Amino acid sequence: MTYETIIVETRGRVGWITLNRPEALNALNTQVMLDIVAASTAFDADDTIGAIVLTGSERAFAAGADIKEMESKSGLEMIMGEHFGQWQRFADLRTPVIAAVSGYALGGGCELAMMCDIILAADTAKFGQPEINLGVIPGMGGSQRLLRAVGYYKAAELILTGRMMDASEAERSGLVSRVVPAADLLDEAAKVAEAIASKSLPSVYAAKAALDVAMETPLAEGLRFEKHAFAALFSTDDQKEGMAAFREKRTPDFTNR
Ligand code: HXC
User: Which transformation does this protein catalyse, written as a reaction (predicted)?
Assistant: First the structure.
């Protein structure tokens, strides 16, 4: 399957999606959204895929939603458009997604990275929510996910001023999982993705679901979910295999059952 705005590849058990609108710094127009959702949900439906990497170019992960496409829209058109429901399908993937961010991750680009589970940043990465400079506010989760990642005061400063932060400030603030030299970004992303893809899928799905629940619920409810998800994994062959392999001092051979 070929796509208009992204490059999609399978490398072993890892699905790769590379944004490919260099002329617009990978700005997220409707076609990009449809392509990302189609490619990522196809990977999600494939049990030979254990992790997805989403990346952009050296210059930009994505410089935001496409301003030229949005500019003339009315409020009603925005609310009735596909943006919110379609991006939610990406956020709802059960497969872990690693955002490998180099260059600009602004507005919707930062928000897209925050829909992923792990954010690896090149030392050249720049994050920000500059929507306030356009007379609007974040619209793909920025005011909600950024606050949960970096806390109220850092999120408020970034969202109210539109200031960008560099990779090391983003790491200090808790927005990124790890900063790596730009030249190593894709290799590091591949290593992280392959590590995840080598685990048992049921446990990976359960771990991502538990983390998602933690973002959304009070502690008692999250703990209840975790307790049952943990116990349910004891009915898998892979739990028996994983623990036997530990005892026998060998690498587990998971079958995803
Ligand atoms: C459309 C964009 C774009 C965007 C860049 N381009 N960002 N087109 N939408 N978000 C285009 C430029 O118009 C230009 O094309 C080309 O990409 C290169 O950009 P330059 O501005 O010439 O590059 P540079 O001077 O290096 O500046 C890079 C930049 C700047 C700092 C990233 O492009 C910038 O500020 N972009 C906008 C960032 C932003 O405000 N993002 C938030 C969008 S709102 P041409 O053909 O003109 O040369 C948003 C809301 C999400 O994301 C919610 C949705 C529901």
Answer: a 4-saturated-(3S)-3-hydroxyacyl-CoA = a (3E)-enoyl-CoA + H2O; a (3S)-3-hydroxyacyl-CoA = a (2E)-enoyl-CoA + H2O
